[in-house]
Each structure stands twice: as structure tokens, then as C-alpha cells.
Design goal:
Elements lengths: L24 H4 L1 H29 L13 H6 L3 H31 L6 H9 L6 H11 L8 H13 L9 E2 L6 E3 L5 E3 L9 E6 L21 E7 L23 E6 L2 E7 L5 E4 L7 E4 L19 H26 L3 H9 L4 H12 L1 H16 L3 H6 L11 H9 L6 H31 L1
Parallel strand pairs: 4-5
Antiparallel strand pairs: 1-4, 2-3, 3-9, 5-8, 6-7, 6-9
Helix pairs in contact: 2-14, 4-8, 4-11, 4-13, 5-8, 9-10, 11-14, 13-14
């Protein structure tokens, strides 16, 4: 067998073929990446980078942009009462609204997992997200109306209040001063100058109410009779006029339920209420006493809470924000809850943990990344809140509900005309948002490297 000899290295050896190095994929296709990124970069520059740069530059000039003022606009922000109120309210929004929304979203997401109609409930809670801020503001402006006949909030409050406290029947009534000797005696009450005698019916004519505004279906007034201490309380006026003032005339209406007190030496010795025909009867000890109509007969009705007043306007608007965004938090947290390992929950229950302990020590820690996402997103969102405050807060209390985004609008376009201060507020808002964005980006990078 012929042996195969290995060719010797030297002149007779065949040279190895030369292999040209491959070009870098990134280097050869960089122009393709730039081509695809160019539209996005142009839009980013036109809609984000340029406005930010222009706002920073404009904040260094005066109202009309003709004079350089340096940092004076920033000094004006922190020396102006309206802007300081806006800073304070923005801090309240950031501290309160995201926390409440996140907690409610967590509660809804956990509870709806165990009910058969959980999907329908989630749909109802999420539905406000389909409503614009403008529409939500108009809705809650009506909800918070002071008049209980128009505002739902005060309709509920007054209904609960009236269920436990009596309201006056005739808040605008008063004795007919031209024919009655009853005079104001403090606390909204009226006391007669003379005394009442048994067998002589007392006449208490009231005015100040339109006959067609009386509650219910009042009966015609009737003159009291009998030998005891009696009297009549009636409306001394009838539609069409006529009759004698101070006398019970046909067609004049009785005032039912008016409380009458008999007072001797400043002490109430007896009391009674007028009946359907306006008459009342007091016991014998009332003989020789002065008659008094206590102020409870004429107290103004309870009209609920001043939701949009200076004290409650910011909490009321935060309530409308919670109504809108609770569904957003619920959906995100429910999505995170669906990915939780149920074996961990069951293991905790097997070890003897009750439902509250499972929720607090297992469910919440496992949902912590999702809760942080929701909380940070809402914090960024509330820093630029504008629509709800501008629409819901009435003009008298708008200064008390002011926030930075609204102050920016008012300074620049809402009559202030100071674009320098408005730009400075915009820059401050950007600086406030940047730390939150930095925390969010850092968290996302950590999540990516896991």
C-alpha cells in the first residue's frame, strides 16, 4: 500500500486561501436603523425637545419676551400667593390621590376574584375611564351642586340628616307684625307681649309663605273654640286677596305642626302643636302665660355640605379623580394578580394564616412591582391635572383649588398674559416629574435584568 506523504512545508506547499473578514452587521446596516428612527427622532425633537428648550429659554425673559430677566420669574413664582397655593395643592394631589386610587384598585382586584359577577363589576368600575376629563368635570360639577334638588351628593346628605333630625316646616314664615303682638325674642323665636286667658282663643296669624307653596294639602283654617287655653295658627293671606287681617277668613289655610309654648317668668310651662285645622289646645297651667313660637318652627332647612367651598373643594375634586382612575388601577393590578402563583397562597393558608395575613404578607409583596407601576404612573398623571380643577371649581373658590397646571394656564392664557412666568411654571413641573420618571426607568431596567 502506498503511503500518503504529508506535503512538506516550503516551496512546494499550497498556500492557504485568504478569507476576507466579515463586515460588522451593525456597521453595514446603521444607515437602515437611522432611516427607520428618523421620523421618530424628528417628531421627538419637534414635540418634546424643542418645546422644552424653548420653555427654558422663554422663562428667562419678561412677560412679552423683550427683556432678559434671568431667574426673576422663578422668584415671582415662590413669592406669589396664588402660585404657593398651587404648589401646596399639587403636593396634596401627589400625596393623596395616587395612594387612594392604588389602594382602591388593589381592594377591587382582590375582592372581585371571589365573586361570580366580578367581570361585570370590573366593567362598571372601569367604565369612567371611557369618559373624558371634560365630561367628568361637568358631571361632578352637577353632583356637588349646593341645592339638594340638583346636587346628588347633597341630596344624599340631606336625606340622611333629615332622617335623624327634624326640619322646620315653614322656614320663611313670621307673625303678621301689623296685627300680631308677637315680636322677635332671640334665637329665631317670637313671643307675644300679652298673656293668654282660658276661654279667649289666641289668634296667631303668620305670613311670608305663598299659599301655593305650603307643603302637602293644607286644610282651611278654623277658629278655635272651648273653655280652655286654645288658639289658631294660620296663614293670614289667600290667593286673590280679601278678608280681614288678623281674623280667620274663609279660604285661608291652616298651618299644621307649628309648636306653641306657654312661658311664665322665662320658663316653659306647657307646649302643644297645631293640628290639621290650625287649632291647638294647652293645659290649664298655661292660663296667664305668654305664648311663644320657638325658632325651630322657622329654622332654615338643612341644605347639605358646601362641597365646592374653600375648605372642601380640593378633596371633592380628588374624589372625582378617584372615581375616574380607580378602574385603571384595578385592571392593572388584576392583571398582575392573575400571574401570582396560587400555590404560595395555598401554602400560607395550610400553614394557618388567615385571609388578612395572606393578603398582607403574601399577596401584597408579590404584587409590589405592579403596585409601584400604578403608583408612579398616577403620580406623574396628577402633577399635570388641569381639566377637573378648571371645570369643577367655581370661580369664588378656584384660587383655593389651584394647582400648578392651572396656574400655568391662568398666568399665560387666562388673562395674565405673562408667558415668562407661565414658562417658568412649566419648567418647574418638568423638574418635579423628572425624579419620578428616573425612578420608574431605573425600576424598569432592574426588571429587565431579572
Amino acid at each position: 500500500m502506498a503511503s500518503l506523504a504529508k506535503p512538506a512545508e516550503g516551496a512546494g506547499a499550497r498556500p492557504a486561501p485568504s478569507v476576507s473578514p466579515r463586515k460588522s452587521v451593525t456597521r453595514t446596516r446603521r444607515w437602515v436603523a437611522v432611516l427607520f428612527l428618523l421620523p421618530a427622532l424628528v417628531l421627538l425633537g419637534a414635540l418634546v425637545v424643542y418645546p422644552i428648550g424653548y420653555s427654558v429659554w422663554r422663562s428667562l425673559y419678561d412677560a412679552d419676551g423683550s427683556g432678559f430677566v434671568g431667574l426673576d420669574n422663578y422668584g415671582d413664582i415662590f413669592s406669589n400667593d396664588s402660585t404657593l397655593t398651587a404648589v401646596r395643592n399639587t403636593a396634596i394631589w401627589v400625596a393623596v390621590a395616587p395612594a387612594i386610587v392604588t389602594v382602591l384598585g388593589l381592594i377591587f382586584a382582590v375582592l372581585t376574584e371571589r365573586v361570580r359577577w366580578g367581570t361585570a363589576f370590573k366593567l362598571i368600575v372601569f367604565m369612567p375611564m371611557a369618559i373624558s376629563m371634560l365630561a367628568a368635570g361637568i358631571i361632578f360639577r352637577l353632583v356637588y351642586e349646593q341645592d339638594p334638588d340638583q346636587g346628588v351628593a347633597n341630596a344624599v346628605v340631606t336625606s340622611v340628616h333629615d332622617a335623624f333630625a327634624e326640619s322646620s316646616v315653614y322656614p320663611k314664615a313670621r307673625p303678621n307684625a301689623s296685627v300680631s303682638d308677637m315680636k322677635p325674642s332671640g334665637g329665631g323665636s317670637f313671643t307675644a307681649a300679652g298673656t293668654v286667658r282660658a276661654g279667649t282663643p289666641a289668634l296667631i296669624p303668620l305670613v311670608g309663605i305663598a299659599p301655593d307653596k305650603l307643603p302637602g294639602t293644607p286644610e282651611d283654617a278654623r277658629a278655635a273654640t272651648g273653655s280652655g287655653v286654645t288658639g289658631t295658627v294660620w296663614l293670614d293671606f289667600k290667593l286673590g286677596g280679601g278678608g280681614t287681617k288678623g281674623q280667620v277668613d274663609p279660604g285661608e289655610k291652616a298651618l299644621k305642626g307649628v309648636k306653641v309654648e306657654a312661658v311664665k317668668d322665662g320658663t316653659v310651662v306647657a307646649s302643644a302643636q297645631s293640628g290639621a285645622d290650625g287649632t291647638f289646645s294647652l293645659p290649664a297651667e298655661a292660663d296667664g302665660a305668654q305664648l311663644r313660637l320657638p325658632g325651630s318652627n322657622f329654622a332654615a332647612p338643612y341644605n347639605g355640605i358646601d362641597w365646592l367651598g374653600p375648605t372642601l373643594v380640593t378633596p371633592a375634586i380628588i374624589g372625582s379623580y378617584v372615581w375616574m382612575w380607580a378602574g385603571f388601577a384595578m385592571v392593572l393590578i388584576a392583571a398582575g394578580l392573575a400571574g401570582v402563583d396560587r400555590n404560595l397562597l395555598e401554602a400560607a393558608r395550610v400553614d394557618g394564616a388567615n385571609e388578612w395575613q395572606v393578603f398582607r404578607r403574601v399577596t401584597v409583596p408579590l404584587l409590589a412591582p405592579v403596585l409601584v407601576v400604578v403608583l408612579v404612573t398616577l403620580m406623574i398623571n396628577v402633577m399635570k391635572i388641569f381639566d377637573l380643577v378648571y371645570i369643577i371649581a367655581p370661580q369664588p373658590s378656584q384660587d383655593d383649588a389651584n394647582v400648578l397646571a392651572l396656574q400655568l394656564f391662568l398666568s399665560s392664557f387666562g388673562g395674565g398674559g405673562n408667558y415668562g412666568v407661565g414658562s417658568a411654571i412649566g419648567v418647574i413641573l418638568l423638574l418635579l416629574v423628572l425624579p419620578v420618571m428616573f425612578v420608574n426607568i431605573r425600576r424598569l431596567r432592574k426588571e429587565r435584568h431579572r
